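REVIEWER CHECKLIST
Item 1: Sequence provided? yes
Item 2: Single chain? yes
Item 3: Sequence as submitted:
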Amino acid sequence: MNHSKLNILKHSWGLYISTVSTWDAIDNENLKKNEFRKYFIFPWISLCVLIVCVFDSIYAVDKPLETGVLNGIISGISLLGGYFLSNKICFWYLRKNHETIQSAVICEKVVGYSFTTVFLLDIVTTILPSLFFLQILNVYIAFMVWEGCRAIFKLNEEDRGNLVLVFTVVIIFIPVIISKLIQFLVPNA
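Item 4: Structure as written out by the authors:
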């Protein structure tokens, strides 16, 4: 197994167990943009889509295969679109308000690793829909972004406030908005 793959699996777990030290380790990595997407974002999205397809098929009352596939497609589009749109919005905000930070790659690191909470909650609430109330744990994204801004952007506490707020709101709500929009536009979704 590739060293990068091992680190990314370790980082996914570490962001919940020891967030501060994991962000410091992430900062020391030299992953290219495409490597990050290939070894972190795309596997997470693929896993989410697979789980949505399987479990929505199992839980469907009528037309299980169609329901699972349709919900998997909607999940994939909302997660992929949510990730890329969140990344663009956050980088635009970062460029506008922090001229010293002009790297799309490091912005993508913060957004991407902070998306781990979205991925995990999507998986858990798909497998156990009765735990829908766990969506409140999305607020943990704020702490992840806070520590990411410290480790990756090297910002002090005073400069992190608005950045954390914008990044957190964007990361939480963009995938939800895309999903709701698709469900509105697609009948019987």
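Item 5: Key structural point noted by reviewer: The radius of gyration is 17 Å.
Item 6: Recommendation: ____
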